[in-house]
Amino acid sequence: MTITRVAALVVATGLALSGCSGGASGGGGTTIRISANAIKGGKNSTEAEWITDYVIPKFTALEKSKGTKVTIRFEGTGVDDAPYKEKTALDLKTGTGADLISIDGIWVGEFAQAGYLKPLDQVAGASVDQWDGFRQIPGPVQSIMSFDGQKYGLPTGTDGRVIFYNKQLFARAGLPADWQPKSWDDILAAGRKLKQLHGVTPIQLNAGTAMTEATTMQGALPLLAGTGHEIYENGTWLGNTPQVRSVLDLYKKVYGGGLGDPKLQQNPQGRDESFQRFSKNEVGILLESDYFWRSVVNPQGGIDPMPARDKDVGYALIPAAAPGQGVRGQDAVSMSGGSGWVINPHTRNPSLVWDLLTFMGGHDAVKDEVRRAAVGISPRQDVNAETLSGDPLLNFIATKVLPITSVRPGLAAYPQVSTALQKATGDIVAGGSVDQAAKTYEQNLVQAVGGAGNVTTG
């Protein structure tokens, strides 16, 4: 998108451009600006409330006790993600915008490659790595706001993917209530037993373009991590490789073997329908994020509530293809998303802004943010230990999943790559062969990422 078009869009959405502050304000103090796509009473209202009602008064009081006068100005908006991203990119490119900015983790690599962001240690100094808060944030979670091994920001909330299973159906099929598959073969074996139950879809593995990003994050990417590889490695994208073919072969075994319902994958409302079926004891195994537990089958206000959720819904780690074959030699894998805060490289007071950022990422501030949000997983293990102990699934995510999780590559080409993966799985569901689906995927991938030189094949 051209700068001219972005500027026009910014004006149209009422997001005015202004210079990066952090300079002197009245009375000899310093003004720091915070930008987030959040507004009281509107989009991400609890985040806006946390910033205005907790962060600003607490931090300014803390600095005052040190003899430093700081004024913090919150510039919240409540627009769609696309115009917010475009406005943020233009601010960073032109050296304007707020000092501290909230962005989606999926934008980090794209902004870094464009030169809009710099690693934290280059902005705030080498002491960044000495912040004790990093010891509370698992390395994979830090990756949400990292690129090429360098930290560009601090993550806020996150999530994780697991296998959910219906314990009532498992009991009827003679499967254990404490099921933990050790391999893909174990999943398929459980699916075959569930297949013997009338009116039950054994496995729901999101596939096709109708499921959009749910196909990629709840299906293709965690499975790929289970082969020991990620979609973007060492500067290239994974094309028609043995690992990609292994993932597609598993889809073939699920949908070609009558263990999944192809029609669900082709229905724009198929994911929602799969949720409904699970809640009605008609789906045995479902790969999903903790959203399913929190917002779908939650007995208190869920979309498809299960009154006995905690008793009837089991959950397990997503196994690698075989023990030890996952990324980093892991036995189990997952995928996580999230957002975070970055420092504008053009800020005039990087040290003070870093102090604000670490205050916001500290134990007390994060705990207050989680309390306001009522639900959710924080990046800090100490906070999770205090706030999630009453929720078995969220505690499981925090303690067992986050240390082994992976994240999507935050690059501009990723959405097109994701679509190519969705199409490949959709081809399998429609009855296509693994070889042809893999070849077509690579053709689409090459076009999406700018040429064969950016793709690993073999």
Describe the structure in your own words.
This protein is α/β, with parallel strands linked by helices. It folds into 2 domains: 225 residues, D-Maltodextrin-Binding Protein, domain 2; 221 residues, D-Maltodextrin-Binding Protein, domain 2 (3-Layer(aba) Sandwich), CATH 3.40.190. The strands form 5 sheets. It has a 5-stranded mixed beta sheet. Strands 8-11-7-12 form a 4-stranded mixed beta sheet, sandwiched between helices. A 3-stranded mixed beta sheet has the order 9-10-17, covered by helices on one side. It starts with a helix and ends with a strand. The N terminus is likely disordered.
What is this structure, in a nutshell?
This protein has 458 residues and is α/β, with parallel strands linked by helices. The chain is 44% helix and 16% strand.
- Parts with pLDDT < 50 across at least 5 consecutive residues: 1-18
The domain tally reads 2
Q: Tell me the overall shape.
A: globular
Task: Report the biggest beta sheet as strand number plus sense, adding barrel if it closes.
Answer: 5 strands, mixed
CATH topology heading of the largest domain:
D-Maltodextrin-Binding Protein, domain 2
Radius of gyration: 23 Å
Individual helix count:
20
CATH homologous superfamily label of the largest domain: Periplasmic binding protein-like II
Strand content: 15-25%
Overall mean pLDDT: 93
